Amino acid sequence: MAIASINPATGELLEEFDALTDAEVESRLATAARVAVEYRGTDVAQRAHGLRSAADILDAEVDTLAGTMTAEMGKTLSASKAEIAKCAKGLRFYADHGADFLADEAADAGAVGASRAFHRYQPLGVVLAVMPWNFPLWQVIRFAAPSLMAGNVGLLKHASNVPRTALYLEDLFTRAGLPKGAFQTLLVSSSQIEAILQDSRVAAATLTGSEGAGRAVGRTAGEALKKVVLELGGSDPFVVLPSADLEKAAQTATTARCQNNGQSCIAAKRFIVHQDVYDDFIAKFVARMGEQKVGDPTDESTAVGPLATEQGRQDVIDLVDDAVAKGAEVLLGGTVPDGPGWFYPPTVIAGITEEMDLYAEEVFGPVAAVYKAADLDEAVRLANVTRFGLGSNVWTTDPDEIERCIDDFEAGQVFVNGMTTSYPELAFGGVKDSGHGRELTRHGMHEFCNLKTVWVG
């Protein structure tokens, strides 16, 4: 895939970039290795100052940067601005809490016959991040903020369709006062990743992306005996039970399915509704989905912009068409609009069966698959039927049902009466084919630290 910025609302090519040569990659790796030795010795207060400075720059440049993000991947301007604000918050969170997260942890010295015993967190060195386009700033910051605060240095291989945002990120940390080379963007093709990860100067890697990309990076990291964190796809269940506030649930379901133009790994995608409230909920849900305005992402009244790539839209079209051909019922949408750009309307589809691709595959667009469950047991079974296990939602006021879903949902996250989202204060990650490892909180920082045991006689 060419490294190019293309406006998905118009199909217009904005700018093309040449991939780095092998010699240029070697130079970047040498710089990263050299700076890693320097940067690990910096004081945590110095690192925190750099993160706060980066947050201040984001605040000051929100309008310009939002325009870049919207032009590159089609999210609405309001969504771009919200993402930038979230990144500034994430940077400040680690600046404020990083020292505590990295503090030595005392162990029971007497139990092990020592005068002192403790655990110390130290940086691993150079960490390679392979990141996707759907949240082109936040996906990177949620890796970069804890890693840089821990004293690691970063190499970013961003998605090929968001090169302007990728280059901005390198410039951001340099202008924020971090040592030049502490965070570098590598404009490289996917075929160059394997050699970079195999390089002995790279200590670990993190990837957010497809299952295929995760398997490839995980395989290479495993062969090289390197730590890797993988956040892959999701097909999150949104379970609605009889005691739920149906109006609020329908409103939240619409936001959950249409946020970021339907392109979010933790977006609710499968709506599993108890038969006692199925008709009422679906009527409310379809009505709200139908109210979402599709159009120019720079228009403040637009709720759903274009999908980020032409192939991405085709993938959505194929999944819906396959389901319809095999007997599914389209309750709303399902038709590609005329005109330029890669738009797809909010769509609700029922009657999904196992032979349909939509039953098992993640749909990365504003398409909601709805299921009717006879009881809680069937709802839990349907929630867990996919190979994914990233996020999950349940709507109920029954304490026993809440505890049942918390225990039995096969997912890295359970949100009760609310929409799955990410916060610096909550650990983020999945199970099954949604990957392994965690981001955010102290856990995300510790993923790329050497937990060193110290025993003093």
UniProtKB/TrEMBL annotation:
Kindly give the Gene3D superfamilies that the UniProt entry links to this protein. Aldehyde Dehydrogenase, Chain A, domain 1, Aldehyde Dehydrogenase, Chain A, domain 2
Residue ranges of the Aldehyde dehydrogenase domain? 3-454
Which GO terms label this protein's molecular function in UniProt?
aldehyde dehydrogenase [NAD(P)+] activity; succinate-semialdehyde dehydrogenase (NAD+) activity
Per its UniProt record, what CDD domains does this chain match?
ALDH_SSADH1_GabD1
Is the Membrane keyword given for this protein? no
Asked whether the UniProt record includes NADP among its keywords, one would answer yes
Query: What parts of the sequence cross the membrane?
Result: none
Q: Give the record's GO biological process terms.
A: tricarboxylic acid cycle
Q: Which UniProt keywords apply?
A: NADP, Oxidoreductase, Tricarboxylic acid cycle
- Pfam families per record: Aldedh
Family recorded in the similarity comment: Belongs to the aldehyde dehydrogenase family.
Q: What is this protein called?
A: Succinate-semialdehyde dehydrogenase / glutarate-semialdehyde dehydrogenase
Look up and give the organism this protein is from. Answer: Williamsia sterculiae
Task: Give the organism's phylogenetic lineage.
Answer: Bacteria, Bacillati, Actinomycetota, Actinomycetes, Mycobacteriales
